[in-house]
Amino acid sequence: MFQTGMPRKAEPTQPSAARQLQVYTDVLNQLVEQRWNDRYLGPDERRISQVRTDAYLHHADTTGLQREVNRLRQNLMQQPERQSAVCLQAEFRPFLPPWSYFQGEGVLTPIGGRLMGMLQSVAGAAVRTALDSLRTGQRQLRAANLRLRTARVQSAPTPAPGSSANKEWYLKPCSIGMVSLSRLVFNTSKTKCLLAYNFYCGGKCGQGELLVAEKRGGRWVIVAAEECWVS
Question: 195: number of CA atoms within 13 Å, CB side?
Answer without folding.
Answer: 28
